Structure formats: structure tokens, C-alpha cells
Known about the structure:
Layout: E1 4-7, H1 23-36, E2 40-45, H2 50-60, E3 67-72, H3 76-84, E4 89-95, H4 98-105, H5 109-125, E5 129-135, H6 142-154, E6 159-164, H7 171-179, E7 189-192, H8 199-209, E8 213-216, H9 230-240, H10 260-271, E9 288-289, H11 292-300, E10 318-319, H12 327-336, H13 343-358, H14 365-376, E11 384-392, E12 400-407, E13 410-417, H15 421-433, E14 440-448, E15 457-465, E16 468-476, H16 479-500
Parallel strand pairs: 1-2, 1-8, 2-3, 3-4, 4-5, 5-6, 6-7, 7-8, 9-10
Antiparallel strand pairs: 11-12, 12-13, 14-15, 15-16
Helix pairs in contact: 1-2, 1-10, 5-6, 7-8, 8-9, 11-12, 13-14, 15-16
The chain binds manganese (II) ion.
Amino acid sequence: MKIEVFDTTLRDGEQTPGVSLTKNKKLRIASKLDEIGVNSIEAGSAITSSGERESIKAITSQGFKSEIVSFARTLKQDVDYCLECDVDAVNIVVPTSDLHLKYKLKKTQEDILNQAVEIVSYSKDHGLNVELSAEDSTRTDINFLKKLFKSTIEVGADRICPCDTVGILNPLKAFRFYKEFNDLNVPVSAHCHNDFGLAVANTLSAIEGGASRFHGTINGIGERAGNAAIEEVVLGLDTLYANNKTNEKKYTTDIKINQIYNTSKLVSRLTDVYLQPNKAIVGDNAFAHESGIHADGVSKNSATYEPITPELVGHRRRFIIGKHVGRRGLKERLNELGLESDDKQVCEIFDKIKDLGDKGKTVTDTDLEAIAEQVLEIDNENKIKLDEITIVSGNKIRPTASIKLNVEDSEIIEADVGIGPVDAAINALNKGINDIIDIELLEFHVDAITGGTDALIDVIVRLKQGDQIVSARSTEPDIINASVEAYLNGVNRLIEIRKKNPQLN
Ligand code: MN
């Protein structure tokens, strides 16, 4: 059975606290959604502002394959603005629960029903596809809800969507609830919120109950705890209901599954909503293995500890080096870092890593690299070297750093300010290396090893360039020097990896 995907990343998703997308960003996300096969894209809410309408118009003018939808209330003005934006469909949202009627709208069920019928007729008269969403359906009197759906279907509503606006269903209730609408003879959409972390589970149950479409967002962003994550629902449908023996699918979607990971990355980057590392399907750790037993199993047959392969969704497998690492995981990471080693060398590196781990130290990639290079007798020349750094800081001055770097035969001198001296130093450094490599700082961690103010400072950073992530450290008495050195170590490591794997460029 084909399940249709209604994406609301640009509407419900944009209602994520702190997220506001420019026209350009909306257009880029919409293009990607169209490219990966989303059936309906809710591009926004035309009534919101003229800027929002500009964004929706930019999207409708692209001639995408996806149906383009705008949100609308039961007001003619809302629908008129949708028409101005030339959308294919409207998602008319009608609050239906007593709670919403009494406190939000101060209206009766009858008022609401009449309004809904009127606005659906109006939209149909103007050639729009109509999805009728009943807000807070899961706290609405079921008889009234059915009456509302029937009356609006009679005047032309093409699809209905009973919404679990505050995420109070559980999977069994979702199954039973969505089953209630099977006899209405129009497609039913599920719209589940994630207040109890059940949006995806409830959406899957709704589909089992008879919903043939679902609303969701990329990465599950949205108001409060968010919406059903499209990538999780799609992979759930694809994998969890397939026949184990024949691999025959019970449910299919039009989504290009191998584009899931890069779509997630794009949305995360453009919305500035970062993903938790353990996020299902698309998180950094979704296919990462540290433990020796797991890493060993996975490298012999990935199915041992992975339900699906990372390649299926366009993600990649990572082996993390730590004290739980096994020889095989270590070898994989060395290969990823472009360091060729034979079995005997791997054993020697392995022993040294275990040693560090037993001393309670985190093993960063630069530690691994330093050990490996020693064992493999490689001399890696750091491309970028710190020559001079000067910091001015105090309580009545903006922290300022100037930095001199040696890059092969040339010198780079840069300066910048920052929140504090470390920030100023890293900003100046970033300015200096900007033309060489584009770096994103993922994590910055500082420890004072012995606890006193004269302690050695241990700085660990995690840096990212493209799809490559490395960790690096430096330990020095001076926090600024330690930070700059750790950062530079990571940068040099990334440059080295790029040099050894030119296909990554
Ligand atoms: Mn919603």
C-alpha cells in the first residue's frame, strides 16, 4: 500500500521555537523535498506576512512535482491569500475540541461546523484541493468530529486530517482512533505531535489503523517536542512491516530513501536546529560503534548490530576509538584516517591505545594519529603552524587576538575580537585559515588536570569539515595556547585526511 507524505517542515517545523526561515532557505528546503519525492509540501501560512507570501510564491513558481499547500484558518481572507500565492491546495485547520472552542474561540460546535463548511465550499469554488484538519481532534467529542468531517466532505473536502495536536495518543489508541474514519471514503492523514516521544510510533499505528497519508517534518522539528520525524516514519514503514522472508513491502512511499541523510543535514544546517547524536536514522551515532564486540561483529557482518545499513539512507558507519575498541574497529578507523597498517602494527597501536584508556584518557584522533605515526614511522609535517599569538584582555577591553601562522612558505597574519580571550584567539585563527579549509567547531571541552590555578589545561575539540569529523587535543599550562594548539591539531588532521583521500574534496 502506498503511503503519501505530507511535509510540514516549512510550516509546523518553522514554528519550532527560535526558527525563522528566509525565502532563500525555504526555497532550498522545498527543492530538496520535491527532489526526494515528498507528495505534499506545506510551504507556510499565506496569511502570516508579506514575506511569507513571497516565500510561498517563490516555491509555487518552480513547477515542482509535489503538491504545494498553504495553511489557512476558516476565514475567506486566509484562503484569498493562499490563492494569491497560487498554491495547489489548502490545509484548512479548524479547532474542534471543547477546550479550544470555549477558551480560544468562544464559539459553539455549530458555529464552527458552519464556518468550516462555508470555507471548504469557497476553497473548492476557487479550484483548490482541500485538506480539512481538525485541531485537537484527540480531545474532541468523536461524534461531533465525524459530523464535521462528513459535512465538509459533502461540500468537497478532498482529504481529512484528525490531529493529535498535543501528542496524547499512545500507539494502541492511535490505531483505534484513526480506524474510526475508515468509512468516510476520503484519504485520511495522521498528524501526531511528539510531546511524549511517541509521534513516530503513533503515526505508524495510525497508518496500520487505516490512515493513508501522514504529516511530518524532517528531523521531527516543530512546536514544543516537535512532529513525527519523516525519516523515521518512512524507514519504519519500509523496514518494520516488510515480510522477513520475501522482503515484500506492506507499505511503500515515494521517498528516495538514500537521500534521507543529506536532506536531514540540509534542514539541520538551514534551521540551525542541531540533532542529538543518538537521533534515530540520521544522528551522528546512528551507525557508530565503539565497543570492541560490536565493532568486530559489524565489520564481519553489519547486520549483527545494525538493523539497516547506513548506505541505505546515505549515512555512513563510524568506528569510534576508545578503550572499548577492538582490533578490527581500530583497523577500520586507521583506514578511514588514511593510515595503512599491517596486523602486527595494529596490535602495537592497539596496546598503546588501551594503555591510554586505562589511564582514564580519552583517545582523540590526533592521539591515535600520533601513536600510529610513531608505530608506522611516518613523519607528517603539519601544514599550518602557529608562529605567534598575542592576546589583549581585561575587564574594560574587548578581548582581542592577533595571530601569525606559517603555511608552508608563506605567512598569514590575522586579528579578531571575541567574547573572551579563547574565543578571540580561535576567531583570529579561523580568519587566518579561512581560505585553506572550511571548519565547523562541534565541541570544545576544557579540563584543568590537577585542579589548581597553575594546573595543566587539557583541551579537546571536535571539528568537522564536510562529512569528516576529527577530535584533537592539546595539553599545556596556558588555556589559550592549549585551545589554539588543539584546534590547529584538528585542522591539520583534516587537511591530512583530505590529502590522503582526494575523493572527499
Ligand atoms: Mn501541528
